[in-house]
């Protein structure tokens, strides 16, 4: 069993460490080094169809849903197409407004999630073209979808998804850029710039993994708490939703992820002395706004950890208790690095509490009932 885990104590830790490889594998052959453009020959979706897309709906469950939240920020910013996110179990029952110009993207690691499969069929019955982003080529979802974009994360064993999620992000970057190329919403230079930054991600994640001890120490510190909060704005808000889910799944510590600016509209009432608040601060356009929100929770006694880029560490330390610095990338790609710190946090919190990290109570890797 230890051999299967490649010397790691748990599958989850092994899979966290496999992310640089998963990134490389998912990008492999999809970036043309000469033209500096994305090539996705596997797609049946024609350029004509892409030009006609009026809206996109991203539908998934659990961690795949959270990846879709990042997908939305990526597609909207690169291709300027309106995107909605839906939980698959809700999608079918809300009579979604679908036209032949609607692209539905279903995201599923296993390709077998019953709710997601049902949503896919609902979308097709309404005339949508369905693109599946999945990690399993021969899965039910891959077979039924009109188009498939495969993530090459390799088999994921731990119930808590890590490398599948991050590979889904890479799939969204590639697809978002592809839409932008066809629709002309980004210049060649802009596309090349994003691709260059993407190619640095594996190394940057490796660099981050080298600093896991600091996250471990912090995880041990929060392990005795019953409740905690995550805050962030923009893409950071989407990432902390995944961080909060990860922590709940395997450490059983209750946490909530909040849009930093929304706290004051209710949840601030729950902030009391000593409560941990983890602020993800990578989106520089809203950095000052997030710092104001950090000050609001600090004033109520919260113990704040900020996860940010090195260059902001000194400034942020004036307002928070601790800072964890992560490697810098473009704002739209930040999730691919920052999420790793939150995965490690969940892992080490679960470990400190003595839980079965790879097989959390009540949860299954793949849920094939609706
Ligand atoms: C289960 C797993 C989650 C996963 C979700 C969707 O609930 O425990 O980790 O995110 O299913 O799975 P899928 O295979 O469709 O991505």
Q: Please tell me how large the radius of gyration is.
A: 20 Å
Calculate the terminal CA-CA distance, rounded to whole Å.
Answer: 32 Å
Subunit organisation of the chains: single chain
Q: Please list the strands of the largest sheet in the order they lie side by side.
A: 4-3-5-6-7
Poorly predicted segments: none
One letter per element, helices H and strands E, the order comes to: HHEEHEHEHEHEHEHHHEHEEHEHEH
Q: Main β-sheet, in a few words?
A: 5 strands, parallel
Number of strands: 12
Domain SIS: 46-185, 218-360
Catalytic activity: D-fructose 6-phosphate + L-glutamine = D-glucosamine 6-phosphate + L-glutamate
EC number: 2.6.1.16
Active site: 365
Structural description of this entry:
The chain is of the alpha/beta class and 370 residues long. It contains 14 helices and 12 strands. The strands form 3 sheets. A 5-stranded parallel sheet has the order 4-3-5-6-7, sandwiched between helices. A 5-stranded parallel sheet has the order 9-8-10-11-12, sandwiched between helices. Strands 1-2 form a two-stranded antiparallel ribbon. Helix 4 packs parallel to helix 8. It is globular, with a radius of gyration of 20 Å. The chain starts with 10 loop residues before the first helix and ends in an 18-residue tail after the last helix. The protein binds 6-O-phosphono-alpha-D-glucopyranose (G6P). Homodimer. It is an enzyme of class 2 (transferase).
